[in-house]
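Example complex used in Figure S2.
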Amino acid sequence: METVLPLPTLQISTATYNLTGMAKVLRVFFLLLRLLAVAATLCAVVIMATSHDSTTVFGITLEAKFQHTPALVFFVVANGIAFIYSLIVLFVPSTSLLSRSIIVFDVILAMLLTAAIAAAGAMAQLGKKGNSHAGWFPICDRVPNFCDHVMGAMICGCVAVITFLLIVLYDIHQVLSPKFP
Amino acid sequence: MADENGKQTEMESRPWHQTVTLLLVSLRLAALVATSTAAGLMAFNKETKTVTVAVVGTNPILQSFTAAFQQTPAFVYFVLANAIASLYNLLVMLLRPCLKNRGRQVLVHLLDMVVFALVVTGAAAAASMAELGKNGNKYARWNPICDRFEAFCIRGGVALVAAFIGAVLLLLMNALSVVGLTCKNVTSNNN
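Predicted assembly (372 residues):
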C-alpha cells in the first residue's frame, strides 16, 4: 500500500506499512532536517575554504590559510563527505534494504562530524588565546578576517552536528518501532 | 497456540540473546579499563625541566619549565570526558540487576551514545593538540615542544591511544546494543 506525500521534487513511498498522521508529520519534519543538514555542511565547507588572510609584520608577510592546520583540513574534508552523503540520501526512497544502511551511515557520519568540530574547536581556542606555557602566541589579533571565517564555519558545523544527531535519534526511533521492516 | 509460539520463539532466541548480553558486558568492562587508563595517565602527566638561563659570576641562574596537562584546555576536557565515561560505565555495570526493564535499557543505550560522543570529541581535541605539540606550525611561528619534553609527549601519546581504543569499544557496544534492543523487540511482541 503506497502513500505519496505532495512534495514538488521528492516522492516518499511507504511501500511496506501505512503511516498514521503523527508519523507523517515526523517524516516530513525529518526530511526538512536532512535538507538543513545539506545546507549546514555546505556552508561549513564553503566558509572554511574561503578563509584566507595575510598581514605584514616588519616587512614579512604572514599568511593564514586553513590548509596550514591539519585539524581544519580534517574539518573541511569531514563536512564535505557529510554534504555529499546528505545530498545522496535525499534522493533515496525508503525501501527496506537501503534504509538500514542509511541508519548505519548516519551514525558513522554524526560521529565523524563531532570529531571534526572538536578538533577545529581545539585549534580555534589556541588561535584565539594562545598558550603562554609553550610560547605559542595568539594569532587572531593579527589575522581577524581568518578568525571570523573559522568562527562562522564552526557555527555552521555545530548546526550540522546537532542536525545529524537529531536524525540519528529519529533513526533509533524507527528501529525500535514495532512496524520496522 | 499463540502462547506456545511465543514461548517457542523466546526460547529459540535465548542463547543468541545471552551471547549478545555477555559480549555487551565484556565490551563495557574493556571500555571501562581503556577510558580509566586514558584519564589516569593524562591526569598524572607532568614534566619539569630545569635549565641554566644565565651565569652571573660563578652562580648559574636556573629556571624551571613545566609541561602539565592543565595548561591546555583540550587536555583538561580529555581527562574530564574519559573520567565521566569510566564512571558511567562503572555505574552501569554495578546497576545491571536494576536494568531489566526495556524502557531503562533504551535510556542506557541513549546515554551510551552521549558518552561515546564525549570520548570521541575529547580524543579528537587532544589529538589535534598532540599533533601540534609534535610538529608545530611554522606559519604561526608555534614551535614544537615534544623535542624538549619527551616524557610528557610519550605519556600523552599512550593516553591518547587508550582513549581511541576505548572509543572503538564504545562504538562496538553501541552497535551491539541496538542489535540487542531489536532482538528483544521480536520477543516482546509475542508476549
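The helical segments of chain A are 21-49, 70-90, 96-129, 144-176. The longest strand of chain A covers residues 52-57.
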